[in-house]
Amino acid sequence: MPNIVIVGDRESGKTTFLAFLYTAQVRSGSDRADDFRFHVAYESIDEISGVFQQVMSGNFPDSAAKEGIRSISFHLGYRRSGWGIWSRLRSPGWTPGAPASLQFILLRNLEDEMDRFRKGSSLGNAMLRDVLGSEAIAILVDGRKLARAGEDRQLGPMGKYDGAVEALLTALQRSRGRGSGTSLHPLFVFTKFDAVDPGALRAAAVEGEPPEVRKAGLRTAYGEALLDHNLPNTMARVRAPEPHGMRFTTPSYFFSWVRTEAAAPGRRERIRLRRGEGGGWEPDYSKDEYLALLECLWRIARDAGG
Amino acid sequence: MPCALLGDRASGKTTFLGLLYSAQVKYGTGVQDDFRFHAPIPSLNLMSAVYEGMKDGRFPSATLKEEITELGFVFGYLRRVVGKLPYYIRQQNWVHPFSTLRFSAYDVSGEDIEEFIETGIASRPLIQQLLKSVVVVVLVDCSKMTTEVDTAGYKKMLRYDSTVAKLLVAFQTYKKQEYDRLKDSGVKADPPRIYPAFVLAKFDTLRDDVLARLGLHRGFPEGKRQRKEYAEALLRVFVPQTLSQIRGGKIAGVSMDRAAYFLSWVRTEQQEGMEPVGQPKIVRTGFAPEGGGEPDFAYDEYVEFIEHFREIAHKIPDEVLEAEKFQAQALARSA
């Protein structure tokens, strides 16, 4: 089963990210079109359905839920294309027995983990072994921490994170050895993008909202501009030619946001809910981004033979 | 073959069983004699007590429900070939004249299931029996369907959805593991299949504002496809995880695609302009030559429910034989 590592700074929204990924699956997996199906591994259902209940009630995942989630496994399937009307009538339209399986591994404290790794004490850690053997890495970039013009980026909140991510990517490359010929898919997910400072966008020479999911070229330019400004070392590592060892594929960019209701005395910040297509409630979040991400993950898993 | 009837606390399980008893009394005593019903004494006592109470216009009391912890009943369907045999032959036990389904009702908020959900360990016999089920009937309480987010009903429904989804994933995992074990032992077996059914309980209590919000009219449509679409429109909003995991069974290698949908309602007396105090009273039909004084309930839906499982009951014995063959082989090997 291919591993997808999720890394992010503290409070960057890692559990919320997983909760929305699951929410997008539940919505697509129960909609009228019935083009997408998924199965949650038995070991994962308790935790992920717990956070689903929280977000569907308008709450962000609590600290107990965050602590509980270490890894989550899904099996995904899209209806086979090319069957036309028959795909709706015939169950073989699904690929029974051969779904694309994914295991998400959450690296909670990246900087601490990398400090330990640098000291050479974490290789025995089973999770780190899974991390080093992963097929893709979802790098969460907290939109609130993007640097504004005039800020010293290396001393700012993104500086240390940039160093830690770059160190992890280097470790991943080295762990595969020369001549391995393998590749790793970097997925950059900008979280809390609704709270991004316009000054940070201007500093990266981008304007307004990120381009739509369909406009791949424009999105790449938008994402790269932000990351070149905020995670320069990471981007340099991703782009560095590696003719003999593990190479990075072209990065993909996603933008996560959720509308919220401000905290009030005695009440925490809440997720705003909106009416979904069927008339029920759902979090007011960047659903299209998560659906695009799901499809991207499915392709990665399928190509990896998951 | 074990079948599970899952429902939340106070979701209408006992009422459902009482009405099912009422329906089978009428349906199972017809001239065709191709359906029979049996229940263990404690369950039968409870179901008939519930039925008697309903004939008096009363819903089952909480004390009555607490009297029994395990509720079960058996559906028996006359095998087609056996039906063609002379009467005295088909009465012989060696003919095995009936295909049977053994239903057990489970309270998903009960101690056993809660422990299983929390620990994932199926140590209790009740859970082991539950996981072997090939038919899963999920009761969805329509009185808890609300679109008011900050209400207890909304939260209860969210929790129920999570619990049922977890149980479905547990069923799928168990069935897949059993199938893989059979395959590894060289036993030829069909890919596992679970037959799900949903009962929209207390359908008469579904609120107009909920229906309007979902763009649905009052009243369940007739056609099979229309019934499915109507029921799924409700399930998609109120138990989306359950619906997605039913569909996702295919991905897990356990088909649950043949879901069926039924309604359950019982008409209650409406007081003009007044909120009823305590439990509402059940409306009873008038006396007539074919019987009367019965609770006015969704009899046709219950007959549909009974008939839905006829084909399934006839089909399942083949799968049971495979499992028995495997167990016999395993025993022979260990001897």
Shape, per Cα inertia axes of chain B: globular
The unreliable regions of chain A are 83-92
Helix/strand-derived category of chain A reads alpha/beta
What is the chain-wise order of helices and strands of chain B? EHEHHEHHEHHEHEHHHEH
Q: Give the tally of structural domains of chain B.
A: 1
What strand line-up does the widest sheet of chain B have? 2-3-4-1-5-6-7
Helix content of chain A: 40-55%
* Average predicted local confidence, pLDDT of chain A: 87
Domains counted in the coordinates of chain A: how many?
1
Oligomer: heterodimer
Gyration radius from CA atoms of chain A, angstroms: 19 Å
Number of strands of chain A: 12
Largest interface: A-B, 39 and 41 residues
User: If helices are DSSP runs of H or I spanning 4 or more residues, what is the number of helices of chain B?
Assistant: 12
Shape of chain A: globular
Strand proportion of chain A, as a percent range, falls in 15-25%
Q: How many beta-strand elements of chain B? A: 7
Instruction: List the total number of helices of chain A.
Output: 11
The biggest beta sheet of chain A is recorded as: 8 strands, mixed
Q: How would you describe the overall organization of this protein?
A:
The complex is a heterodimer of chains A (306) and B (335). Chain A is an alpha/beta fold. Chain A has one domain (3-303). Chain A is 41% helix and 19% strand. Chain A has 11 helices and 12 strands. In chain A, strands 1, 2, 3, 4, 5, 6, 7 and 8 form an 8-stranded mixed β-sheet that branches. In chain A, strand 11 (273-275) and strand 12 form a beta hairpin. In chain A, helix 1 (14-29) packs across helix 2 (42-56). The longest helix of chain A is centred in the middle third of the chain and has 20 residues, at 157-176. Chain A is globular, with a radius of gyration of 19 Å. Chain A starts with a strand and ends with a helix. Chain B has 335 residues and is of the alpha/beta class. Chain B has one domain (2-334). Chain B has 12 helices and 7 strands. Chain B has helices spanning 13-27, 41-55, 62-66, 80-83, 87-90, 111-119, 125-131, 152-184, 208-214, 224-238, 240-252, 299-334, and strands spanning 2-7, 35-38, 71-78, 98-107, 135-141, 195-201, 260-263. A 7-stranded mixed β-sheet of chain B has the order 2-3-4-1-5-6-7, with helices on both faces. In chain B, helix 1 packs across helix 12 (299-334). The longest helix of chain B has 36 residues, at 299-334. Chain B starts with a strand and ends with a helix. The model of chain B has no long low-confidence stretch (mean pLDDT 86).
